[in-house]
Specification:
The structure is a homotetramer of 356-residue chains.
Chain A: E1 5-6, E2 11-16, E3 22-28, H1 38-48, E4 65-67, E5 71-72, E6 75-76, E7 81-86, H2 108-115, H3 131-145, E8 150-158, E9 161-162, H4 183-198, E10 205-212, H5 226-235, E11 240-245, H6 256-259, E12 263-266, E13 269-272, E14 280-281, E15 284-285, E16 290-296, E17 306-309, E18 315-318, H7 332-355
Antiparallel strand pairs in A: 1-2, 2-3, 3-7, 4-7, 5-6, 8-9, 8-10, 10-16, 11-16, 12-13, 14-15, 17-18
Helix pairs in contact in A: 1-3, 1-7, 3-7, 5-7
């Protein structure tokens, strides 16, 4: 109830601080009999892992996941699945300098005022390290969803530089360090981000996600609309400041006849002629691809000095040393994918319960 | 668990269909001893009420709220508060023509596929009529928050027409039928919306909300971040397609040193020098104004014919007669304000429980 | 979250005070397409209704239920079902005398200390009147369970007088005002209770419930064991002080080889040779009848004067006038049945979600 | 939502199987700033630890707890507390013989039918080993409650042998291997249990718990009554078949004037003259000691052969070898105490949220 759990039926609870001995989570509600081993989870963790290129933090974490329960002889048993990832490269010393200072843009100040405690080591619970467990849960969610539902994500904007829709190629996503679907833009980003990084600065980004093969009917009326839960899921990721479904903010500029996705029977199937809705109507999936976008602010940890205050109420200038992502939006791609999987798995089980 | 409840400690559960005998809700978790009567709620319902200008639906509902429990001798007792609003101007006949048709952009198709039932009368549970109860709950939430926390909202864009930041005047909001803070733009909207309405079309909009006086420390880590719950709250409102906190999507284009809100001591108080964060850092309120924006798509009910299908899988052209809002975004202003109040009240109680 | 909701997937939220305008509830999570009308619910309410014999309170409530939402053309739609029962025979005047006094055995004192409010009219929210809505929810739960699961209850002890196991006849239950399965004992109770009633006193009772046709596999591990949820369900009924499953407290005196229910294959089916377990093993239904018993304390409202204190901290003697049940355990039979149905319906949906 | 979490605000989620690598749990909602270290938890685990006398299972587990998160510099931070206890003496080989058999009285059959999976090693998730984490959570709950609330438990019956009320001495509880408050009876139990043990049999028991210093006002109306949550808490402990509050089942035989706890002002304080209610009125604590009793069935694992069936539907005779408690009720004492602490801590935070 203090917000370390996500989902109602496919539900996970996570724990751990950036510089504690480990992080982990408990995934509850997983149907029994699903094939699952550590490698199934590891592949997604590796995608999010820090230190994989010079454009992400240089902290080197193996992010090796261990399954401690809920799996027997290679299959889920229906019991809660406990996952553990040890922290191996935490350097708390890096944080001695800012022990009593509040880093601008970080949760330092708000956590201290809320809890009266300052866990200065790398952001403690507020660290983006927590997102590793979301990704691990997402790997299990994908098992729940089955092979028919395909989830993928891409980085579509860094700073002012956007990918070109006509150069979009999903294959390109795996071939550059940015999950960029536009090979040409990926090269430009490389140059741009190198500058940012050398300047000790950081930059924001936009992530695009989609899920295909989602059956019509997932979601719930009123408050747990599928898109409402997706909005919460994405906004709960560290540093996210905006979420859109389908046409998103652009829908504000549309007329009703432009926005309504028309339908026609094609080969005996109901077929939508457009997807402004992003695959969700009245909070319930329509069978079209579910399309979500979210915006990530620039990493708050920068080596440029910024004005701030300390615990004693003194003005200070803070420059964050440590090892940080020049664009934390990059690693948000697999995190966003995982959260999309988590929400869909939850609503799949909820749908089965009421209407299955 | 099927999504008709919102909040964890300040929690309401709503019910009712557009054309049933009544709509209502149960608000649970309200602290005892708060002064509350029906007029306290009615004032907000009146603000959202249909039929108040030619720019909102011509359905004439008194939206008269009755308190059925939880209040004794003018004070809340701590017991659940049951609210009831009768439907008095439901004209189900209007819907006979589309009884078996799926209106594009509506939840008709997805509800039918999910539940196997077609409540064709005005959208049934999916109707925006449900938002009246959100507004009623919000009135009680404001009582929980107390007079120190001030919540207000404004419509800032209709179609392509945006208010001018330098003409922003909160007082203007109450003086035009659009909740527009820019008197000049309100006049332009009037002309623009009349055209839209006469053409049988509709248009989207953007709403801006802010809460001042929110103490530092409200929110929770990880999944129930204050901004995550706000994103869910807003996206759960009918027709909403996007939500932003603070700088929102614009944060993607910012550099780290532009985005971080610097702090300084001023007169012994921690003072932020900007508010890109929108009053939330690490999911916890910072003491700055909480700033939320959301985008509403054009009303799906338009009298222009659109291609669709019917229950039997036949192609049809659908034009929605009925009485509808040319811009449903207008009435979303008081609904958004209410949801902001509801989320804050919930987190205020949650904060008291753990850290109070 | 303040305890006015019950269940996770089949979930109801209730409201209303003994002497307010009405009581009611919202039942959420009901599968769509179930045939349901008011008469389906009324039949169970009538069974619990006060004033049906001289052995229950003489308050005359029609307990007429209205369905306000969630049903369309005689079928559940999947939307929340709102039920309303008007209070028609509330005589608040009866309570003027005890306005400032705390009745011994009642919640008067604890509610006042918790909430700082005294709703003296008939117990307010703490009144057994609340149980009517449990019964109404139970009627819907039975629809969810289907005809294959049969739930029935009986009163098996009043004061020291127990029914004789060898005279047990389920048919007798409907033929006396006590839901007594032992026709001979029913006659004895009649004499005994008349004495109690005339003396202005009251007496306790024990209720026996069973559900047959429950499939193997309902329940959950650890904390939401089927029997744990049943224990909560029964103990949450006003005046209940003890709950047993199967052998119950008698199990304490048994040896392991006496207690273990042996199994054998019979006609190709797993068959248990006894049912000490009461149909639940490891928190999960075994396919045997689910057997629950609970004890109800004597009605606290008696006309014999008892020592107490008032709001001002003065010693007083309290005799409760009003109209009360000499044995509130009688009407607890249909309430217990309903709660058993509610728990089973919830776990049926939960089972479908994870293992269906 | 599949039942591996307990509590609403003080909420823990547990995981782990009897013969997996470890068991553990995540405790969420703990207020920040409480002094806490591993020794604070270990002392309670040691009390429950197997192998401490010949009257409990001979499995030798160190039950050494590790805190993996949520504590920094000796204080709780408000973040979730992850606890881990390694399994060091699991001998899965012991279970080879019964790999395909369903042990009577165990969850073997129901788990298999529910999940389609047979984790035969020591009961898997259904093992009483899970209760260690309840005890660990209870240690933290006691910190939340503070020193003013004292919780203690005693074993009051083994088989037909009950402690004598007039010999009750709380000090004796720590001086025998049974948590028995009657030194004389403890000696008799020793002889009795040795016989049971040598016969390869087992026996049931009754546990008495009480909490003193509980302030008036904890609890909630309707479904989350304090006693309803206690009933669930106790019934969720493995092998428990009955729960009583205060007079419990004996209340059925009482008259109203015997049962109502009278009140008088004494030295300016409201004072109850008896405690039939067990410290709970209308679901809310009265300030009197909270008194709970529960019955534990005999350990199902006995070395006497019993009739059963196997996975293939063949009749078999099952004798459980392994290492087991002749009276599992003994170790249920610290588990019951912990669950009492857990429920009270949860309701303390809930009360603060709404009425604090």
């Amino acid at each position: 109830m203090t917000g370390n759990s996500f989902g109602t039926l496919f539900r996970f609870t996570t724990w751990g601080e950036s510089h504690g001995p480990a992080i982990g989570g408990v995934i509850d509600g997983v149907p029994p009999g699903l094939a699952l081993n550590e490698a199934d989870i590891q592949v997604w963790l590796d995608k999010r892992r820090p230190g994989s290129s010079r454009f992400t933090t240089q902290r080197r974490e193996a992010d090796q996941v261990k399954i401690l329960s809920g799996v027997f002889e290679g299959k889920t048993t229906g019991a809660p699945i406990s996952l553990l990832i040890e922290n191996t490269d935490a350097r708390s010393k890096d944080y001695d300098a800012i022990k009593d200072q509040f880093r601008p843009g970080h949760a330092d100040y708000t956590y201290f005022k809320k809890y009266g405690i300052r866990d200065y080591r790398g952001g403690g619970r507020a660290s983006a390290r927590e997102t590793a467990v979301r990704v691990a849960a997402g790997a299990i969610a994908r098992k729940v969803l089955g092979a028919g539902i395909v989830i993928r994500g891409a980085l579509v904007q860094i700073g002012p530089h956007k990918v070109a829709p006509d150069r979009w190629d999903w294959k390109a996503v795996g071939e550059n360090p940015f999950f960029c679907p536009d090979a040409k833009m990926a090269k430009e980003w490389e140059i741009y981000l190198d500058e940012i990084r050398k300047a000790g600065n950081s930059v924001g980004a936009i992530i695009h996600l989609e899920a295909t093969g989602v059956p019509v009917g997932l979601g719930a009326p009123a408050y747990d609309k599928l898109d409402a839960d997706l909005a919460k899921a994405m906004m709960s990721i560290n540093a996210v400041k905006g979420v859109e479904i389908g046409a998103g903010f652009a829908a504000a500029s549309l007329l009703g006849d432009e926005n309504a996705d028309e339908m026609r029977m094609e080969k005996g199937e109901v077929t939508f002629l457009s997807n402004q809705a992003g695959g969700v109507l009245g909070g319930i999936s329509s069978g079209q691809p579910v399309v979500v976008r979210f915006a990530v602010k620039p990493t708050s940890s920068i080596s440029l000095a910024k004005r701030s205050v300390d615990r004693k109420g003194k003005n200070v200038d803070v420059a964050t040393k440590g090892r940080h992502d020049p664009c934390v939006g990059i690693r948000a791609v697999p995190v966003g994918e995982a959260m999309l999987a988590n929400v869909l798995a939850d609503h799949l089980l909820r749908h089965k319960a009421q209407c299955g």
